[in-house]
Structures are given as structure tokens and as C-alpha cells.
Design brief:
This protein is of the alpha+beta class. It has two helices and eight strands.
């Protein structure tokens, strides 16, 4: 019985060491985003009106960002105000002069008028850029 407790104790210690090592490896990696040189962007259309859509529809809205600066644009994250908006974008850096699309799928969760804000976090002087999605949902 004592031998089983010893084996269990050793197994738990090894598992704990593995968890701690993995956590340390992930939390100590350098953050390339915070050290990235700043660039500038242009968003030709930062607001999209989906007009009237049905509750069972899931329309797409495509926002385009253009890197107008001299350094690569890094989109670290795209934040939404609710689970009804799902953004997708290519995670590679956007070279100067190039564009990147952020495709937002909207899944209605209620009827009536809606306004959703999507925030793009990137290496520009103004870290967060607001995009707006609006419209009206019918049955």
C-alpha cells in the first residue's frame, strides 16, 4: 500500500513538473507584436450596413485594410462585442502597400436593429481601429 502511494506521489510530481514547464515555455516567449515598428493603415470602408436580413441568414461583411506605412502591418487580434460576429483573417504580416481582408460572419441572435463593433488590434499609433456592422433583422 505504501509503495502505491509512493508511485502515485512520484507520478503527480512528474505531471506537475510537465504542466509548470509547459506554462513557463508559453508565457516567456518574446512578444514580437509589442516590439514591432509602427506603421499606418487606411480603411476605405469602416462601416458596413447589411440592410434588412432574415433571422436565418448569416451574411458576410468584408472589411479591407491597406498598409500605407513603411513597415509590415501585424494584426494581432480582431475583437468582437458578441458571439454573433465571427471574424476571420489571414494571420501573416501585411507588407507595405498590400491589403488584407477581414471577413466577418454575422449570425443574428435577436430581431430588430443591430449595431456591432469589431476592433482590430495592430501595430499602429492608434492600436485599436473600430469597424462597424449594422442592419435590421426580420423573421
Amino acid at each position: 500500500m505504501k509503495k502505491n502511494h509512493s508511485i502515485l506521489f512520484i507520478a503527480l510530481m512528474i505531471a506537475s513538473l510537465g504542466v509548470i514547464t509547459t506554462w513557463f515555455a508559453f508565457t516567456t516567449q518574446p512578444d514580437n507584436f509589442s516590439n514591432a515598428p509602427l506603421t499606418t493603415i487606411e480603411i476605405p470602408r469602416d462601416s458596413i450596413n447589411l440592410k434588412t436580413i432574415r433571422y436565418d441568414e448569416q451574411p458576410l461583411a468584408i472589411f479591407t485594410l491597406k498598409n500605407t506605412g513603411t513597415h509590415p502591418l501585424l494584426i494581432k487580434d480582431v475583437l468582437t462585442t458578441c458571439g454573433c460576429t465571427n471574424p476571420q483573417w489571414e494571420k501573416r504580416p501585411v507588407l507595405p502597400g498590400q491589403t488584407r481582408e477581414i471577413i466577418v460572419t454575422f449570425k443574428p441572435n435577436s430581431l430588430g436593429r443591430f449595431t456591432k463593433t469589431i476592433q482590430v488590434l495592430c501595430n499602429t499609433t492608434l492600436k485599436l481601429h473600430d469597424l462597424k456592422l449594422e442592419g435590421f433583422v426580420t423573421e
